[in-house]
Design a protein that fits this description.
Strand order of the largest sheet: 2-1-3-4-6-5
Low-confidence stretches: 259-269
Order of helices and strands: HHHHHEHEHEHEEEHHEEHHEHEHHH
Structural class: alpha/beta
Mean pLDDT: 87
Largest sheet: 6 strands, mixed
Radius of gyration: 27 Å
Strand content: 5-15%
Helix content: 40-55%
Amino acid sequence: MNQRPDSEIKQRMKYVAGDLFASAFAFFVFNVLRYSILKGKNQILVSFQDFIFSPKLIVEEIIVPILMLGVYWLSGYYNRPFGKSRLEEITTTLTSALINTVWIYLVFLINDLTGFRKINYELIIVLFGSLAFFTYMVRIAITGIARMHFRKSEWKFRTLIIGDSPQARATAYSLEHDSLREGYNVIGYYPVEGEDNTNDSLTLPRHISLSQFCKNNKVDQIVIALQERDESKVLNILYDLFILNIPVKISPDTLSFLTSSIRLKDVYAEPFIDLTSPSITESSKNIKRVCDVVLSILALLILSPVIICVAIGVKRSSPGKIFYYQERIGKRQKPFRIYKFRTMCENAERDIPALTVKDDKRITPIGRILRKYRIDEIPQFWNVIKGDMSIVGPRPEREYFIKQIVKKAPYYSLVYQVRPGITSWGMVKYGYASSVEEMVERTRYDLIYLSNMSLFIDVKILIYTLRTLLRGEGK
């Protein structure tokens, strides 16, 4: 009987524990070899026992492996515990070992310089070799065990197919039976309106709640297999699937409009486009998150005098609360409360949600200044720290307007791949939108951002944002 693989959390913890053990052992081996090298060059006079059990070295043996885990996490190695390619594994391991070698040398070894360049080079090479070898051997063992379970069909990912046409059935058969494709156990087909559906025991009722079905049946992943190429239909389907927080994959020849903007992932020998993952490396994702939190904390600390002054000004300018919060839709359609300084009269929006227009009478005098320099956005750094938002990312919208945007621009669904941002390429190049049509236009810039996501692009957007702030070009 096929079993689901270990949960991602459990598999991830295996890698973390393995890396911790490998790092500790590798560092111990390095210190043994280090003593041998220094002793052979008459650079050390103490005995091996005194050296290896010295308080300084014992502290290093405890601290260094733990700190190395931070580098491994930043590398993105733990983000996707399943579906690792051999090339990805060895490349990430060698890069991490090199980074760990550099910082260990600079922090712990630089004071032990012998004055002999050859000896120093030997120590660096031995340290790098130990870290790379032992870490890779443990990792490849953990990966190999998982791959063995998949090859023996002992583990299968419970998979839901969107589509029930003969073409969808052929795709499912290929996934389950082709020797080059591993890890799929198709448990159902969700029929799509307008297609030639098969309708058998695995066909789900069209009115069924996908969210409830996936939860009840512990679905691991979803594969979209439509009868015909229809990008609008795919994007509309995707809009309903993001909220499930499950990987949604599609064959690269099915969605030509998006294949250039979304990375291909090698999932057990079958190339798929993961529509729920942005076009950015795993390491960049983690580094971006660390930068978000650190910069947000610094911003709130540095701007605390400004925050106090603005709070007093908002309170005195008009009756009402200092801060304004509103429900927005974030990554994977998760609702969250966005925080701002209040720039409008209290209860300015009582019935139908309305966008801000030029010379909007609802805006208070101090609110116009805050919006012009976007000072009202400062409280959103707290949203970033909480994990609701990023500093750079597509601006979050309200559900009321999102439904209208999706009707006009189905590709808007793709913004749910990432956390929304305080600033964005759309805000920099287009600015605030006062109508749904303008929101659609701005979304095109966000799509460009998603297609070219990188830390460099984020820095570029921040520079443009700073220029906008200094010029007072906010609305």
